[in-house]
Design brief:
The protein folds into three domains: about 50 residues, no CATH class; about 150 residues, AhpD-like, CATH 1.20.1290; about 70 residues, no CATH class. About 70% of the residues lie in helices and about 0% in strands.
Amino acid sequence: MANDSDVINKLRAKYGASSVDNAVRLHPTDFADVMRWRDEMDPQYARLQFEYTYGGLMKRGVLTERMRLLVVIAQCAAMAELEYLESSIRAALNEGVAVREILEILLQTTVYVGMPKINRAARVFYDIVKDTEHMAVLRKTQPPMEGRNAERSLDAERAAWSVTDERFPTREAMLKKYGWHGISAGLRLQPTHHPEAIMRMDRTDQNFLKHWLDFIYGGMYVRGVLDDKTRILCVVGVCTALDEMVQGENHVRAALALGATAREVQEVAVQSTQYWGMPRSLRTMAILERVLREQGRFAELTDTQLPLPARET
């Protein structure tokens, strides 16, 4: 069997040097093996898939490599796609993405898919970084055990709330009953649906509501490892992969409110087509278009289109 260098040289001549080099840069441990069987069994499919992925989508440059890889890592964890998760983690480390940020997006995904999937994903991550300099970095960059709520100010955060009294008439009572840290974080990060969720759960299960607020909003969402924009774009990606369009719309709205551009949100869905298929990704795109039209912002997409791609000769 030809070694990887022979395979890659053959692929460079057959499919285009720049795209192959881009693929090798991103996935040096498994690209040659995947392309070996594709090229042997069906070269037309290999060409179509290769040009779409490495010659096309991964060269668009709308998202930074850091952002794109963190989204893919979160999606692979959510879908329990462990083989590609390992490849993506290694790609992120090769690209210089902070090891603490890679771990953080895995941990944040717990909120959306629960412990079993994240336990499996975290073991993949652990096996990659154990006995390396990355583990030493993780030990040095651990968030404080008690969290970061002591650094927060209710008065300062009130200024960032955009929810009216009419929408959340019981707000002050809820602040006293459950504490302000989780409620305030939700009002700032997810104003489109947080008040209604609090009032609904207060009516039906106040014990769970307290645990929910403390774990997610007063805990996970304010750890300070990832910026809010990065975290929420990864959540849009997770919702796309899971085909969860109700929460997906909530997080599309939250991403736009937290400073993500319309083009960046669209790009999460665009990049997702290669991993999770067209139907789910196109539904996210349709939701984004509807939200932008509703907000009078649709020109933010139509006026920022990328030029038509030039074919590599």
